Amino acid sequence: MLGFVPPLPQQPGRPPSAGHMIVCGDDALARRLAVELRYVYGERVTLLLPPGRDANSPETPLTQRGRAAALFGRMSAAMNRAGNGGGATGGSGDTNAGVEAVRIMEAPEPSDDVLEEAGVDRAAALALVYDDDERNIRAALTARRLNPRLRLVIRLYNRKLGQHLEELLDQAAAVAMPGIDPALLDASTTVLSDADTAAPALAATALTGSSKIIQAEGLLLRAAERPPPRPGETADPGLCTLALLSSTTNDPAGAEGSDSSGDEAPQLLPDESAVAAATGRGTVVLEAVSRADPDRPATRMGGRGAPLSQVFSRRLRWSALGVAAAALALVIASLLTTEDTALHSTYLTLLDLLGMNDPAEGASAARQIIQLLSGIAGLLLLPLLLAAVLEAFGTLRTASSLRRPPRGLSGHVVLLGLGKIGTRVLVRLRELDIPVVVVEEDPDARGIPLARSMHVPTVIGDVTQEGVLEAAKIRRARALLALTSIDTTNLEAALYARSVKPDLRVALRLYDDEFATAVYRTLRTAHPGALTRSRSVSHLAAPAFAGAMMGRQILGAVPVERKVMLFAALEVAGHPQLEGHTVEQAFRAGAWRVLAIDATPPADRAPDLAAIPPYNPDGDAVPPPSGLVWDLHPGYVLRATDRVVIAATRRGLAELLRRQRSVVPRQ
User: Fold this and answer.
1) Does residue 587 have a pLDDT over 80?
2) HSE, side-chain direction, 13 A CA sphere, residue 526
3) Contact of 613 with 623, CB cutoff 8 Å
4) Of the given ranges (9-18, 158-167, 431-440), which has the lowest mean pLDDT?
5) In angstroms, rounded to a whole number, what is the distance separating the alpha carbons of residues 495 and 192?
6) Of 77, 153, 326, 622, which sits most exposed with the smallest number of CB within 10 A?
C-alpha cells in the first residue's frame, strides 16, 4: 500500500556535503517540505525530526521517522513509475539523478550540537517549521550565529513578530559579512506562515467559482474558476488562462484532479491551442488587477458597536413604538379639540404622560378626556422604561460573551475549529462578506477573541456531540469547513452533516494524504450529488516554503483541484530561458508563463513585492503608482535587468532554479 520503503540512512559519522538543505520540524509540513526539495527540486536534504510519534496524529502507530520514511518511499515509487512511463518527460531527464536519499536525523531540540551535526555551517538553506514559534526563533538565532551566510526560512504565526525577526536576522548577517551583496541579503531571511498561505485556498473551497487572491506590490491578482461555456457562448479568457480544470470537475463523482487522474487531470498553464481544443472544461483565468487597501478592516457581523436590535428585544421595541404612537395620537386629538398651538399641545400631553400636570378641573370635557387617556398611556410607559433598563443591563453584562446564531440565518458557512488555520480562514471569509457560524470546543481557543470582536456567531461545544451542528444551523448552511487538528473529528462532522443535508458542500482538512484520498472517494461515491473537497495545509504551504528556500520570492500558491500553481518574482538575469527572449518565446506550456514586468528602476525597487506600499488613503496624497506592467506585448524582449512576475508549476519553477544554479555557481 505504501510502496517500497528504502532503508533509512544512518550516517551519524558522515557529515553532509556543502550546499545541502536542512529541514527542521515536528509535523506534516516538515515531511512534505523535504519531499518537495528532494523530489521536485533535486536538492540534497537533511530532515531533523523529534523522536516519537507525531503529536498531531497520536493515533497512528508510526513514529515521525517511520511516517517520513513511508512518505519518501511512496514518492520514490511514484517517481520510478513516472520515469518508466516511456519518456513522458521528454528530454528533461531525471531531475533527481545523482541525488542521495533524504538523510533523517532525530533530536528533541535543534540545539547547537544537533545543528552542527546536521552540517548547518556548510548548508545553503535551513527551514525551521516547528509548530512552536518560540522554538523556531531560538533555533534561527542559533543558526545565524553558526552560519551568517545561511538562508533562513522560518515558520511563524505571529506576522508582526516575524517582520521584526526578519530585520533582526538580516542585520546580524550584514554585521557578520560587511561586504554582502544586498540582493543576497534580501533573500537571507524569509518568514512565512502556513496559515496565511493555506487560508485563501481553504476559504475558496466554501464557494463555487470563487476567486483566489495573490498580492503583488499593493495589487490584488484574482485567479477565478469559471465554468465551461454553454453551446453558442464564448468563454471570457480574462487577462490570460492559467489552467484547464479536469474534464469532470463539475461532476461531483468525477476525478479528484490529481496527477493520477490521467487525461482527465487539470492542465496548468496551457497554450492557446490546448485552450481552444478543451471544450466542456472549466478554466482558471487571471482577472483584472485591483489595488489593495492596507487599512481595510475585516468586516464585522453586526457592526462595531451594539445596535438597538442587539440591545433591546423585538417585543420591547414594538412596545416602545406603540407608546410613541399613542402619544402622537393624543397630541393630534388635543390639536383638533382645543385651540392650542402644536408646541403647547405636545407640552401638555407630555406632562400628562409623566403625571406632572395639574387636574383640568375647569377645562372642557375634551381636555379632561385627553388628560385621562394620557395618564393611562403614562402608566404603560413606566414598565416599558423598567424593561428597557433591565435589558440594557443584560446586554452590557453579555457584551463580552459570544454571539449566538440568529434564528433566521441561512446561506452561511459553518467553520469548525478556531486554531491557527481556522482563525485565518475566518478572517478571509469575513473579508469576502460571507456569513459564518463558528463551532469550537475550547472556549479559550486562539481565535475566540477574534470571533468575539467581529461579532461572529459562535457555538461552544464538541462537534461530535448531538445538537452542536444543529445549533450552528447546519440544515440551512451553504458549506461546511472542517478545519480542526484531528482527522477523525473532521470526518465525523462531515459524515453527520451530510446525513442531515446530503447536498451540503464539504471541505475537510486532513493530515494524511492516503486517508484524505480514501475519504474523498468514499464521500464522492456515497453522495454523488454534492461536492466534496479535501485539503492538506502542508500540501498547500510546502511549495511556498520550498521556493523561499531556493531564494525566490513566492507571492502565493493557488490550488487547482489537487495540484498547486505558484506565483513568484524572478530576476531575469541568470535565467537563459528568459533573458534575451520575447515574452511569447519565454512562455513554456505546462511549466511557466511571464505575467508582468516590474518597470521600476532597479535602484528604486521594493525588495518585497508582496508588501503593500504605505500611503494615507484619507489624505490628499494619491497611492503611488505600481511599477508592474501587466498588459505585456508578446514581442517585448526580456532584459537582464528586468524583474518579472511569473506563474509556474512546481516542476517548472524547479527547472528555472536548477538552470540558474548551473549558470551561477554557488559561492
Assistant:
1) yes
2) 15
3) yes
4) 9-18
5) 34
6) 622
Among 93-102, 423-432, 557-566, the minimum mean pLDDT is found in 93-102
Among the listed residues 570, 623, 575, the one whose alpha carbon sits nearest the alpha carbon of residue 598: 570
- The number of residues in the chain equals 667
Q: Are strands 283-286 and 219-226 parallel, antiparallel or unpaired?
A: antiparallel
pLDDT tops 80 at residue 157: yes
Tens of pLDDT, residue by residue over 481-506, are 999 988 888 888 988 888 888 888 88
β-strands 413-416, 436-440: how paired? parallel
* Alpha carbons 654 and 660: distance in angstroms, whole number: 10
Distances in Å between the Cα of 356 and the Cα atoms of 151, 332, 350, 360, 366 are 81, 20, 9, 12, 19
**pLDDT, position 45:** 92
Looking at this protein, which amino acid is placed at residue 474? I
- pLDDT number for residue 415: 94
Cα dihedral 634, 636, 640, 643 sign: negative
Q: What is the arrangement of strands in the sheet containing 458-460, beginning at the earlier edge strand?
A: 458-460, 436-440, 413-416, 479-482, 505-509, 532-535
Task: Check if the beta carbon of residue 510 is closer than 8 Å to that of residue 516.
Answer: yes
Give the CA distances from residue 36 to residues 45, 423, 545, in Å, rounded to whole numbers and listed in that order: 10, 27, 9
pLDDT confidence of residue 279:
75
pLDDT at 114: 93
Question: Three cell numbers at 505?
Answer: 458542500
Nearest to 462 by CA among 430, 413, 496, 426: 496
Rounded to the nearest angstrom, the gap between the alpha carbon of residue 370 and the centroid of all alpha carbons in its chain is 65
CA distance 486 to 509: 9
d(CA 130, CA 163): 18
